[in-house]
Amino acid sequence: SRRHRIAVIEGDGIGREVIPAARTVLDRAASACGFTLDWRDFDWSCETWKATGRMMPEDGIARLADHDAIFLGAVGYPGVPDHISLWGLLIPIRREFDQYVNLRPVRLLPGVPCPLANKQPGDIDFWVVRENVEGEYSQIGGRMFAGTEREFVEQTAIFTRAGTDRILRYAFDLARRLGRPHVTSATKSNGIFHSMPFWDERFAAIGAEYPEIRADQYHIDILAARFVMSPERFDVVVGSNLFGDILSDLGPGVTGTIAVAPSANLNPEKKFPSMFEPVHGSAPDIFGQRIANPVGAIWAGAMMLDHLGEAEAAALVLRAIETALGDPASPRTPDLGGTAKMDDLAAAITAAV
Ligand code: NAD
Ligand code: MN
């Protein structure tokens, strides 16, 4: 029967709680749909860094390469600077495996309190596509005259034509695949002199290849306001690495708790493994109490199943999440206003699968 080899990095804090919980749900969906998930654990975390001075071994990337997907909890913990976990693990994985798409659904789920008034499940349902490997997040630049009055820093952003075109094309292809006729681009070409006019130019050029899809653009500032004031109007929103980063947290923010939001780092060509993770971090403030909401990790797992070609199982998991959250009698973790433990909510979702 079909098998998929999954590299698992639970990482730090509640990553160690929600990932095992999610695995149970995904295994149930796999057995219901007749395939096997072959999990291999990689115990890499801030603890590894404290013990060895590295977040992952020197051949870490090579050891992950031989998998169909990577399932990640969260990395980062108090006492270890965040740039260590980011540049020592997350960014190398994204870049070495050319995971140039970061994809996040923004969807109001039943039973999740929405911070916006009068919104029902179904009202808010769109996708944020973030460029994930170039743009503003670069190590190019430097600091001169450190500590003197002449001190300055320079930070360079890189927008290649190939990198820009492929993320824009992914956004339009996604809209076409989902039958959602509208792509919105985040820009700031009135203020950022070189990169954003170029981005707009490529957006117009790629958009012209998709005549049936309405393409529009907003400056990032007013776009952020529109996420809050009129989130119903979006289908697919595409942005550069920095703008996409901000929008892809703002989106889940307007639909309630970031604890339920998933994130996929995709190499759409499947030349390299893609990585799936909840949006939230290691939540040191609640780690150890087993009260973390497991839905973000479980939903990330559903996106992973979809990427692996197991659309039926992915849909099964998503429906189970909606069933469990939508049932007023089902267990609710404290972030959802309840008093249940993570394991009770995870069990309700497993049962719904
Ligand atoms: P966080 O997401 O860990 O926590 C923010 C708040 O949300 C906390 O109050 C936390 O208790 C709550 N929360 C988060 N996930 C939850 C869940 N599943 N259920 C219930 N409540 C939840 O963000 P932070 O505190 O800014 O970061 C903590 C550490 O995690 C930092 O070291 C940071 O670098 C790291 N981090 C890692 C990733 C990643 O691995 N991709 C992402 C974000 C943060
Ligand atoms: Mn972010």
Automatic annotation (TrEMBL):
Q: Reaction catalysed?
A: (2R,3R)-tartrate + NAD(+) = 2-hydroxy-3-oxosuccinate + NADH + H(+); (R)-malate + NAD(+) = pyruvate + CO2 + NADH; (2R,3R)-tartrate + H(+) = (R)-glycerate + CO2; tartrate + NAD(+) = 2-hydroxy-3-oxosuccinate + NADH + H(+)
Please name the Pfam families in this protein's record. Iso_dh (PF00180)
GO MF, one annotated term? NAD binding
Q: What is its EC number?
A: 1.1.1.83, 1.1.1.93, 4.1.1.73
Q: Which PROSITE patterns match?
A: IDH_IMDH
Q: Which domain of life is it from?
A: Bacteria
Q: Check the record and name the Gene3D superfamilies matching this protein.
A: Isopropylmalate Dehydrogenase
Q: Which cofactor does it need?
A: Mg(2+); K(+); Mn(2+)
Alphabetically ordered keywords of this record: Lyase, Manganese, Metal-binding, NAD, Oxidoreductase
Pathway listed for it is: Carbohydrate acid metabolism; tartrate degradation; 2-hydroxy-3-oxosuccinate from L-tartrate: step 1/1; Carbohydrate acid metabolism; tartrate degradation; D-glycerate from L-tartrate: step 1/1; Carbohydrate acid metabolism; tartrate degradation; 2-hydroxy-3-oxosuccinate from meso-tartrate: step 1/1
> Which SUPFAM superfamilies does the entry link to?
Isocitrate/Isopropylmalate dehydrogenase-like
Q: Can you give the residue ranges of the Isopropylmalate dehydrogenase-like domain? A: 5-349
> What biological function has been recorded for the protein in this entry?
Has multiple catalytic activities. Apart from catalyzing the oxidation of (+)-tartrate to oxaloglycolate, also converts meso-tartrate to D-glycerate and catalyzes the oxidative decarboxylation of D-malate to pyruvate.
Which family is it part of? Belongs to the isocitrate and isopropylmalate dehydrogenases family.
- Annotated protein name in UniProt: D-malate dehydrogenase [decarboxylating]
Q: Which organism is it from?
A: Acidiphilium cryptum (strain JF-5)
